[in-house]
TrEMBL record:
Classification of source organism: Bacteria, Bacillati, Actinomycetota, Actinomycetes, Kitasatosporales
Gene3D superfamilies in the record: Vaccinia Virus protein VP39
Coiled coil, from the record: none
Magnesium as UniProt keyword: no
Keyword vocabulary terms for this entry: Methyltransferase, Transferase
Family matches, as InterPro entries: Methyltransf_25, SAM-dependent_MTases_sf
GO MF entry, a single one: methyltransferase activity
One GO BP: methylation
Protein name in the entry: Class I SAM-dependent methyltransferase
Signal sequence interval, chain numbering: none
Residue ranges annotated for the Methyltransferase domain, each copy included: 54-146
Highest taxon of source: Bacteria
Keyword Transferase: yes
Amino acid sequence: MSVTSRYREAWEGFWREAPGGQGGVFWDAEPTLTVARHLALFEPYLSDPGLPLVDLGCGNGTQTRFLADRFPHVVGADLSAAALDHARRADPAGRASYRQLDAADKGEAQGLRAELGDVNVYVRGVLHQCEADDRQPLVDGIATLIGDRGRAFLVEPSEAAGALLQSLTASPAGPPPKVAAVFRHGIAPGRVADDAAPEFLAAAGLTLLVSGTVPLTTTEYAPDGSRIELPSGWYVTGRAG
């Protein structure tokens, strides 16, 4: 299956209107506060760090460029062509390569796997943005990409994060501008149960190697001036044995 045309167009519209430069969208926090923290959790479980690394749902490529300074071959993959335009403009030296990919489409995942072989995969906050029927196919696509030797790292907002986002949108002043931009394009984050990710992984034939919790830092601030951080869970997965 593939994602719906409505979902694809929602993301194209969002990224066409998104400002250029780092930090212009809600989840585009500095790499030192996001992917660097995640790598400290992920790297000890990489069975082969020399494999290509796919940043799945790379958006404008902020985290991708950080990864490209630390791994020999990094591919930023995203559903949205407009997002990839942002990523390429921000990476004139071509530190990473960029590919349009619908990872919920079995054929597209198999095609990238045939090209790259087994890969390691980094996924930050993509599952909860998917439509419900696309979540298992997305995880199935991740399983296809990592093959036998790769590992995947997923970090997803927890159920508690949903309550926090709801409180932001219910504020008398309205949601923060970067949150409002997401909702304006019909990309309402879906609440994913805390026990759902391990179930998706198991259904895809993957073994959960380790999991934990970590705050997911955003670019928005609360009324008291503090940075908004979403409670999140993280998971490292791969093939058994």
